[in-house]
Amino acid sequence: MATTYLQLTNELLRELNEVVLTSSTFSDAIGIQAHAKDCINRAYDDIVMAEPQWGFLATGESGATDPFYGNVYVETVAGTRWYELKTASSSVTTDYGAIDWDNFYLTTIGVSGESAPYTSQNLKFINSPDWVRYKREAENADDSDSQSYGKPTHVIRSPDTRKFGISPIPDKVYRVWFFAWDLPTALDAHGDTIVFPDIYASVLMARARYHFHQFKDSPQQAAFALQDYKEGLKKMRSNFLNPTPNYITDDRRYF
Amino acid sequence: MATQPYALACEGGLDKSSSSFELLRKPGAATLLENFEVDIAGGYRRINGYSAFGSSSAANPSAENDILGLHVYADGVIACTSTNVFFSQDGTSWLQINKASVAGGGDNHTAFTGRSAAARTSQGLAHFTTYEGASDYGEVIITDEGSGGKPFYFKMTGTGSALSSRTFFAQEITVSGTHYPKFCTIHDKHLVVAGAATAPNTIFYSNTIADSDDVTDFTGTGSGSIVLDDQVVGLKSFREDLIIFCRNSIWKLSNINNASTIVVTSITKNIGCLDGKSIQEIGGDLVFLAPDGIRTLAGTVRIGDVELGTVSKAIQPVIKFIADNIGTYTISTIVIRDKSQYRLYYGTSTTGSASRGIIGTLKTSEQGFTQFQWSETVGIDASAAATSGFNSNGVEKHYHGDYSGRVFNHDTGDNFLDSGSAASNIISKYQTPDLDYGDLGTLKTLRYAKLSITPEGTVDTNLRIRYNFDNLDSPKPADYSLSIPKPSLFGTAVFGATAAHKFGAASDPITRQVVEGSGHSNYFRIFSDNQNSPYTVNGIYIDYEPSGRQ
């Protein structure tokens, strides 16, 4: 069972010789106890911000729905370029925490009415300046005048980061798969659990201790805790993000 | 950051007058000291309880009537209750001593018990004085504040342990006409009485006592009376003078044995005594309850009516409460000489186990001057009557009575007694001021406390810590339970008979308790609610970790 918010807070309180909380007093924590709770959440955020693409933040399991690399898809509409990355989100505060823009995939598999042979291809990311310079005018003319659409080949990120665009404007319904990561929900109730494995709780504790000692104006203790946190975070990165061999890739073959 | 040490010695007593910031510089004082007493040997000691006079066979002198007065006499105690006066050696049987028509040469026990009663009509709170003289046990004079009866004289002779072998003398004393004085004292071979409802500002003094009749004679050689400007509320012989406590003034009568030079002079005309029962002699001085506090006579003589004359400044709010309700409360006081203590109890017939009192211990402070250090009692229903004195064996005895007719051995045992005479717990509390460890601005995390507690038996007490002046926003650690076994000391412990005691333990053990929490300041409260033996809290050592200014 994952470590709970109460357990983390009490571990911090115990370590600093403060009065621990109980499940019944947790929501009414006062003074230093409330600060300990804040420190835990702050440390939690710090770990998440360090690597927004932690595996444990993935929006869904890859390939859970269809055997594609991606955990989220959006279905296009013929003649529509821009799509919200997270359609259920109303603002940036509830959007995905991270998107792998180099990993968009277009297919007709799963689209209603489609049958083999299906369309399947990678969508190459094109940055905004290039798209503006080379494609926008022609495609806008298609959109407004000729209604001449096509099979998308590129994906674009909107300047507000909330949407993706595809180029050319799709001529029919496709599924656009991509990989997304959620923003974590702040710990609130005493039984709320952290999203990563318990063995990494010590990294969170080190960071929480760092914040707590700063509050207590103990720079030396804070420095020790910060060092612990950095070393712990390095191990987390190593274990979560870099467990595979490194390769050098030649991108020229995509042109 | 490295931890820091801090130690406080329990010294100074209860302080309810200083501000919380002043108390930061008085760590040894107490902001709460209930059912503790300042120990003349140092520290704060949980008080003794009390026990029934007569133990399990105790009998009331007179049903459940209020005890109106007690007086240590001979090898027992005299008790006034209802309209009668009784004497008992052991509390299991009481001899009525307010008898009429007793033979001038004394009655034997049979004759005495057969006499009719000389009813003490409308008897109120009683006052006693003893003329030691040359008789076996001295002669006792009793007056009462009911002002419905003459002063009563009683003497008992015979050294046999059985009352049946003794001779009894008793009679009413006619002072002047129908004046029934309330207060009495023996002063320089005179019985002095005063405060009669019919002559509240007149003092009467008897013949110069030369033989056995003189103490009861207010008409012969050496007798007389003096009219004062103020109403008398108490009399006390002090050294060469008779101190006359009036409602709004204090007087001194000198040269009572010289008719040509006898004189009454004023000590103060601005301060009086609130209650004659509060007057006691302790530490070579007279203390009494004045409107502005407990005062010493010497202090009042020296510096008049200024507030500096009070010795109870530290508990002024308590004194003010008593003074504001003096018309409601009955006052009794007792001096416990071997503890250098003055105890004042206040309450009513209905306060019962909620009755309160104050204990002043005359103690030499660290600075080298002797002063009263105070504490409070809760649950000792002794305002009806309390007395101390030396019995015929020279042993100091202490008694108190309640409003249910019961008489108790005062200051003994490990428990109180409830209204049904069942043993009840002593609830004691000692609380330090908030301690800032020298700097209120720094946050401190407490690591552990070492408590020096001297047990007189097995101690089960509790430690409570609260931070930042008990700020509601500061987390409150749970109370810590402390159990300290009584050490089995060589020469006193019996092998196998003291199973709960710890062999080889120190007589003044240090108990280490890991504590938690942090704050800019904190207080410690040591409290117990049981019938265990007393213990003395000598001091507290604290290990804390300072951190930054918040």
Assign the structural class of chain B, choosing from mainly alpha, mainly beta, alpha/beta, alpha+beta, or little secondary structure.
Answer: mainly beta
Overall strand count of chain B: 44
Low-confidence stretches of chain B: none
Shape of chain B: globular
Radius of gyration of chain A: 23 Å
Number of strands of chain A: 9
Order of helices and strands of chain A: HHEEEEEHHEEEEHH
Overall mean pLDDT of chain B stands at: 91
Describe the structure.
The complex is a heterodimer of chains A (255) and B (550). Chain A has 255 residues and is α+β, with helices and mostly antiparallel strands. Chain A contains six helices and nine strands, in the order ααβββββααββββαα. In chain A, the strands form two sheets. A seven-stranded mixed beta sheet of chain A has the order 1-8-4-5-6-7-2, with no helix packed on it. Chain A has a two-stranded antiparallel ribbon with strand order 3-9. In chain A, a hairpin with a 5-residue loop joins strand 6 and strand 7. In chain A, helix 1 crosses helix 2. Chain B is mostly beta strands and 550 residues long. In chain B, strands 1, 3, 4, 36, 41, 42 and 44 form a seven-stranded antiparallel beta sheet that branches. A five-stranded antiparallel beta sheet of chain B has the order 2-35-43-37-38, with no helix packed on it. The longest helix of chain B has 9 residues. Chain B is globular, with a radius of gyration of 26 Å. Classes of the chains: A alpha+beta (255), B mainly beta (550). Chains A and B meet through helix 2 of A and strand 36 and strand 44 of B.
